[in-house]
Amino acid sequence: MATALISRGDGIPVKETLALVYSVFKLRIGFAIMFTALAGVAVSPGQAPGAVQVALLAVAVLLSSASAGAFNMYMERDLDARMNRTRNRPFVTGRFNANAYWLAGILLLLAVAITAATLATNAVAAFYVFMGAFVYGVVYTVWLKRRTWMNIVIGGLAGSFAILAGAAAVDPGLAPAPVILAVVLFLWTPPHFWSLAFKYKDEYSAAGVPMLPVVVRDATAAWIILAHSVVLVALSLLPVMYGLGWIYLLGAALGGARFVWTSIGLVRDPSPGMAMINFHASLVQLSLLLAGAILDAWLL
Q1: Which of 1.20.120.1780, 3.30.200.210, 3.10.290.10, 2.60.200.40 is the CATH number of 175-300?
Q2: Which CATH number fits domain 13-172: 1.10.357.140, 2.40.50.1070, 3.40.50.2000, 3.40.50.10750?
Q3: Can you tell me the distance from the alpha carbon of 172 to that of 100, in angstroms, rounded to the nearest whole number?
Q4: Does the structure show a pLDDT above 80 at 300?
Q5: Is the confidence at residue 239, as pLDDT, over 60?
Q6: Is residue 2 predicted with pLDDT exceeding 80?
Q7: Helix, strand, coil share of the chain (percent; to 5)
Q8: Dihedral of the alpha carbons of 80, 81, 84, 87, in degrees to the nearest 10
Q9: pLDDT band at 83, cuts 50/70/90?
C-alpha cells in the first residue's frame, strides 16, 4: 500500500519522506487553522466543552485541513509544475504517486475528521469542519482558482469555518463575537494571499492563474490590499463590545497597526520586496489576534 502512495527511491531517508508528507498535507497551515478553531471556542460565551472534547475538535480541524491541503496539491500538480516556487512538490516530481489511493486516503481522512467532530461536540460544529475543507478543496481549488481573481476572496471562507466550528462547539446558535471574528478571517485571507501573489505574479501569470496582482496594475492591487487590511483591522476591534477584554484588544490593535502600516508601505512602494514584508505582517497580525483571543479567555 505504501508503495502505491509513495514512489520508491534508493537512499532516500525516512526523514525526507516525512518532510514531504508534512508539506503535502500543508500541516503548517493546518496547525494555524486548528489554532483558529480554538480561538472560536475561546471567544464564545457559555460553558465550553471539556478539555478532551476541545482537543478532539482541534484534531478534527487539523485532519480536515490536512485533507483539503493534500487534495489541493493533488489537483494542482499541473499548475505546480509551471511555477518555480512549487515545481519541487512531490506530486510534481513523482515522489508521490498521484493515483486513486491518494484520493481515497484524503476522503477517509476527512470522514474521520467529521466523525471525530460530531462525537466530540455536535453536528453543527462537524458541519463547519466539513465546510472548511469543502470550500478550500472544491470551491477554491476546483471551481474558482483557474477562472477568476475572486478565487481567494470566496476561498477565504475556508478559514472562517474553523472559527465557527469552535464557536458551535460551545453554542450552535453562535454569539456575535465569533461571528465577527469569522468575518475578520474572511477579510484577512485575500490581502494575506494577494501579498504573496504580488511577489510571484509572473509565475502565476505564466501558469494561467488570475490572481489579483496578475489582472490589475501593481498600484491598484496595493490599494485594494490596503483597503482590505483597514476594514478587517477596524472590524477586529469590535468583539471588545461583546465581552472580550484588554488582552484581546492589545493583540488586535498592535498586530492590526503593523499590518495597516506595511500595507501603506506597499501602496507607497508596490514592489515584490514590500509585498513580502506585508505578507509576513499579515501573519503577525493574525497570530496576535488569535493569541489575544485565547489568552483573554484563559487569563481574564
Answers
A1: 1.20.120.1780
A2: 1.10.357.140
A3: 36
A4: no
A5: yes
A6: no
A7: 80, 0, 20
A8: 80
A9: very high
